[in-house]
Amino acid sequence: MRGENIQKDISSKYGIFLRKYGFFYLLILPGLIYLIVFKYLPLAGLTIAFKQYQPGMGFQGIFTSQWVGLKHFRKFMGSYYFGEIMRNTLMISFAKLLLGFPFPILIAIMLNDLKNKYFKKFAQTVSYMPNFMSWVVVSGIIVAIFSTDGAANNVLNSIGCPPVSFLSQSSSFLKIIIISDVWKYAGWDSIIYSAAIMSIDPTLYEAASMDGAGKLRQIWHVTLPGISSVIAITLILRMGGILEAGFEQILMLYSPAVYDVADIIDTYVYREGLQMANYSFSTAVSLFKSVLAAIMVLITNFLSKKVSGEGLW
Amino acid sequence: MKLSLGDRVVSIAIIIIMALLSAAFLLPFLLVVGSSLLTPGEYAARGMAFLPRHPTLDTYKILLVGREIWIAYGVSALRTLLGTVMNIVVSAMLAYGISKKDLPGRNIFITLLFITMIFNGGLIPNYIIVSNLKLTDTIWCMLLPNLVNVWNVFVLRNFFNTIPEELKEAATIDGASQGRIFRMIVLPLSKPALATISIYYAVAHWNSWFDAAIYLNKRTELWPLQLIVRKYVQSADVYSLQSALVGGAQRPPGMSVKCAVIVLVSLPMLLIYPFLQKYFVKGVIMGSVKG
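Above: the input entities. Below: the structure tokens describing the complete assembly.
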């Protein structure tokens, strides 16, 4: 008799549990399966950076291939290309940061000052558009302008100058990469600053102007401090991504002629991994980059907290 | 409040700068549109142009007379439609599941999600998984590996959390099952958030090309339009491509062809975008509120 009751208790407890939470677990299930298969399995696959995995080894190869420790990392760091690739990655990233970080802020400040709402809406819309074009499209536009039969060379031709191969010359290539990156993202990136500006207390502006501050001073003393926390957090996030130098963009536009300035970690990983099938080596390079990036985020967050009290967590 | 002279100068300067910037954002694209309408004669004489004197649709005709562009349009549209539906369904389910505050193990799930935002396997491990699952050279390689974007899930979850518990409790008292509550109360109330996130997913699908590039090696008929555009843009001579461009006696300039495919792939986005702009902007703000 007693046993029966206990049985009933247990199964009804399960029943209650299922009835209460079963639906939610069911909802989570597809997403969970996706996470395991497409996010965590590849994370496990990262281990091939320490092994000798060959194409064709399949899933099991991730676990059964031979352990070689830090061999691939040593090979990368000792290789002829290491210095060049690291330098290119950092230089391109920093250049994009230097030029691209202030621009959205300036755009947001300027948009905020526009009084005519039609012009303001127009300027906003037009500035967001490049963000929604893929790098295939933007590269196409760049080719239309800068290739040897593009618009820029048309102009040069019409004034009697010889054609310039903008996309095959390292210095001009770099400038094109950096400027087009800013062009694509500046408008979209300004949204977050525009939102922050709108949340600044208007009485602060009134007080400033009563103290005799003109527009520019008001921007310096009211607007900028008012959005400083957004600026700080955005900067930290960008520093964390400092090793992402723009893979899709560079992959679309680069060529061996400009490898010396344009080859970044990701393009090297792509060529070594998918084209030369050096799976383990390429994974090691990619893991190297991820670890460095994580360290960057930690350092930048720490420094930012020290300097301004703002941090990601 | 009267503006001082200095302030008025600043205001005018700002207007001029914003006008110049707006031109900078617009003109490159207008150049591409204009150049896609060039006749061979005008191209030989003037090169690229914003406003051809004798515009022609010949370039578009030769591109659209064959099947390549249409098939690629179809693939892109199918991928975007099917992909977005799959994205939003799984994401909303996941978001609602983890939004239940007293769900046992909830924090574990959230941590698992969060970790994937920071760490990922990288190019080769992902490639190994996808190819060993035999997804390459099928449409699924474009739909499954990117099924869920964790950031979007968190945005949806935050939104679901704003729906008052009382509404759901009242429905439970009235005898509604959890499923009904989800379908008839939560989802309809979440339309703005669902719409915004769906649009994000859709744009990402339409603009995707790299996944197709590495996973669709043999079956090029499955290439989304972006990859076709890439093929044209990166070729030295568009008429040497295997796409059987029907050239007549007067073949449109190669550069015009490149410009035309760029316009073709951008057209849907350009037409729809102005209507959806407010959703995009709202989404950024929703996503930036730390939750």
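Note for the figure: The longest strand of chain A covers residues 51-52.
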